[in-house]
Write a structure and sequence with these properties.
CATH class: Alpha Beta
Radius of gyration: 13 Å
Oligomer: single chain
Distance between the termini: 14 Å
CATH topology: Rossmann fold
Largest sheet: 7 strands, parallel
Length: about 150
């Protein structure tokens, strides 16, 4: 079974970084998991698809059509923000890009589940979470935990 990495976060200003993270993960053979909507989530999927990768969208709502156009596989949950647990649990590692409260919840779920988490500078800062200065460093740190 291949490696899945969840990319979590929000904020249009972080789209370029998220797209690069998605591309780098796909180049390393990872499936990119996100919450499936816009901004950071769609950018990470867009980057993964540009590199020939596979993407999974875990949606908060009940409509598959809400997924961004770069999602290969769509999981409809109908549980709103509670889907953040599924996003965190579906990654072998988690990379946080930007974001606010939802991202913080995903970081907390990931840590509670024992998943390694790397926060790109600008993501919520939590004691004990590694911080990366660049998308490339974030990917490298996250994947190093899975070796």
């Amino acid at each position: 079974m291949g490696v899945q990495v969840s990319v979590v976060g929000s904020g249009a200003e972080w789209e370029a970084a998220a797209e690069e993270i998605g591309r780098l993960l796909a180049e390393r053979g990872c499936t990119v998991v996100t919450g499936g909507l816009g901004e950071v989530m769609s950018a990470a999927h867009r980057g993964a698809k540009a590199a020939g990768g596979t993407t999974i969208a875990i949606l908060p709502g009940e409509e598959r059509d809400a997924a961004n156009p770069w999602a290969d596989h769509v999981v409809v949950t109908g549980v709103g923000h509670a889907r953040n647990l599924a996003v965190a649990a579906s990654g072998d590692a988690v990379i946080a890009v930007g974001g606010e409260w939802g991202t913080l919840a995903e970081i907390a779920f990931a840590r509670r589940l024992g998943r390694p988490v790397v926060a790109l500078a600008g993501a919520p800062q939590v004691d004990g979470i590694e911080t990366a200065a660049t998308p490339a460093e974030a990917v490298e740190l996250a994947l190093r935990h899975l070796e």
